[in-house]
Amino acid sequence: MYLTIKTKDGRKLKVKALIDSGYTNTTITRKTVEEKEIPTKSLPKPFNVYNSDGSRNGEKIIREFVSLEINSRTDTLNKLMQ
Fold first, then answer.
1. What is the pTM of this model?
2. Residue 79 confidence class, pLDDT cut points 50, 70, 90
3. Domain of residue 32, residue span
4. Would you put residue 58 in left (φ > 0), alpha (ψ -120 to 50) or beta?
5. Phi and psi dihedrals of 33, rounded to 5?
6. What is the pLDDT of residue 35?
């Protein structure tokens, strides 16, 4: 599935997306952020990534986020970047 996202500087970008109705957060890959040159901001308090069974997902730590609009939604959603 592809979605159109809008960056804070007004660019509209088509990106490949996976919809998971059971997921508790929305993420975007570092590869997509780098390829599309989407600006990031540092989180004031980084946090660990956990699997559904409560175990740590390797050594992954979320340290940054990006602000995007998805499709025609008017609210800006903060996307966590791993």
1. 0.68
2. low
3. 2-81
4. left
5. -60, -45
6. 92
The sign one gets for the Cα dihedral 78, 12, 38, 14 is positive
Question: Per the structure block, which two tokens stand in for 43?
Answer: 């989180």
- DSSP state letter for 66: E
Task: Extract long-range pairs of 6-14: CB within 8 Å, 24+ residues apart.
Answer: 6/68, 6/69, 6/70, 7/36, 7/38, 7/39, 7/66, 7/67, 7/68, 8/39, 8/67, 8/68, 8/76, 9/39, 13/38
Q: What is the pLDDT of residues 9-61, one digit of tens each?
A: 889 988 888 777 666 677 888 899 999 999 999 999 999 988 889 999 888 88
Q: What is the DSSP letter of 31?
A: H
**Tokens linked to 30:** 């570092």
- Count how many domains the chain has: 1
Cα–Cα distance list, 36 to 4, 50, 66, 79 (Å) = 12, 27, 12, 15
